[in-house]
TrEMBL record:
PROSITE patterns registered for this protein in UniProt: CHORISMATE_MUT_1
NCBIfam families associated with the record: CM_mono_aroH (TIGR01796)
GO molecular function, one term: chorismate mutase activity
Positions contributing to prephenate binding: R6, R89, Y107
EC number in record: 5.4.99.5
InterPro entries with a match to the protein in the record: Chorismate_mutase_AroH, RutC-like_sf
SUPFAM superfamilies with a match to the protein in the record: YjgF-like
CDD domains per record: AroH
Catalytic activity: chorismate = prephenate
Any one of the GO BP annotations: aromatic amino acid family biosynthetic process
Cross-referenced Pfam families: CM_1
Protein name stated in the entry: chorismate mutase
Length: 123
């Protein structure tokens, strides 16, 4: 079974270092809370809002040990009026037997506002 593991965060600014740090922190928590092993990943989608242009957030994933061959796609998030600025979203398609309700979706920083129903894990 392939499950989607979601996460989102915000960067402090559009500086490369800030975008990569925020993305790496999010990925680290997603990996930890879901016990993710790179060899079980089908693919990863990473999106950023249109105010992120200094770096591809997916570059942070490439810096993780063992993730060299994980297929990843970076894309621009829809530009919706009133949307959360400097927001990075991640969707990991993961092969697991875990039931849907056991998947830990992680929302950090200002992105907690996107899914308050999931609690504050990752804040």
């Amino acid at each position: 079974m392939i499950r989607g593991i979601r996460g989102a965060t915000t960067a402090a600014s559009n500086k490369e270092q800030e975008v990569l740090l925020s993305t790496k922190q999010l990925l680290d928590e997603m990996i930890l809370h879901n016990r993710i092993m790179p060899e079980r990943i089908a693919s990863v989608f990473i999106s950023g809002t249109n105010d992120i242009g200094s770096v591809f957030p997916a570059k942070a994933l490439r810096q993780l040990e063992g993730w060299t061959y994980v297929p990843v796609m970076c894309m621009q998030e829809l530009d919706v009026e009133g949307g959360l600025p400097l927001c990075i979203r991640v969707m990991i398609h993961y092969n697991t037997d875990e039931p849907q309700e056991e998947i830990q979706h992680i929302y950090k920083n200002e992105a907690i506002r996107l899914r308050p129903d999931l609690g504050t894990k990752g804040s």
